[in-house]
């Protein structure tokens, strides 16, 4: 599979991520967002909507031990490196259960780390044990393929954009900093179904708009409910999503892809209609001005 100009706007691939990645042509992807298993399903508990619930999400989220976990992260990160164009970037999200292993794998793999982002959750769940600080952030690592390569960064969009929703840290006309205050996923973003590790679209808005341009190909090797794809498609990027769970992929993610494309097409149609009306009014104004000018030049009777 390659990122051709005539390629579909999105492709969803079901199966083992490492095997499926081999179907994608090397050096064809512009940006990767990866939300790998955090390996935190340890029979503990957390709080959701005021109730005590298990942290267990599935066998895929259980730790196999630090050595095996690191080997897994090193392997999939290396596979992703082969798919990126020179200067392409990867974003990896995680908590202390996994992010340090991912960071070390990036260093060992020759990547150049650009930033680590602290995603602060102002409405994070409380800590029920009362024996430690309340976990209220996740870390995102942003890295490019190699130090010698040049990467995309839309500086002005991050500085001048309207990022105020829920983020008290971002100030008007000031540089975007590496701490982002973004609330948890909205209920409206779960209308097609729920995923236990679903990220808010506001988080992916910053990721996609900061490090890609329209027409770029974005890959998510742990697609889940399709947040990355929904945001990428809404902003004119193309998307490839991989997930092992067919239900999440086709019952939730694909519906979100369809919605995002419809939103994008409706927006473009409205813009086109507005431009057509503006062009018509401009032509009308020019004709009126021409008539007035001709009358002024007409000799008196």
Give the key terms.
single chain; 301 residues; alpha/beta; Rossmann fold; eight-stranded mixed β-sheet; two-stranded antiparallel ribbon; 7 helices
Walk me through what this model shows.
There is one protein chain. The chain is an alpha/beta fold. The protein has one domain: Vaccinia Virus protein VP39 (Rossmann fold). 37% of the residues lie in helices and 20% in strands. The protein is built from seven helices and ten strands. The strands form two sheets. Strands 1-10-9-2-5-7-6-8 form an eight-stranded mixed beta sheet, sandwiched between helices. Helix 2 packs across helix 3, helix 5 packs across helix 6 (227-234) and helix 6 runs parallel beside helix 7. The longest helix is centred in the C-terminal third of the chain and has 52 residues, at 246-297. The chain is elongated. The chain starts with 9 loop residues before the first strand and ends with a helix. The model has no long low-confidence stretch (mean pLDDT 88).
Strands, helices and their partners?
Elements: E1 10-14, H1 17-21, E2 29-34, E3 45-48, E4 51-54, H2 66-83, E5 84-94, H3 99-108, E6 112-120, E7 137-144, H4 155-160, E8 179-181, H5 201-211, E9 217-220, H6 227-234, E10 238-243, H7 246-297
Parallel strand pairs: 1-10, 2-5, 2-9, 6-8, 9-10
Antiparallel strand pairs: 3-4, 5-7, 6-7
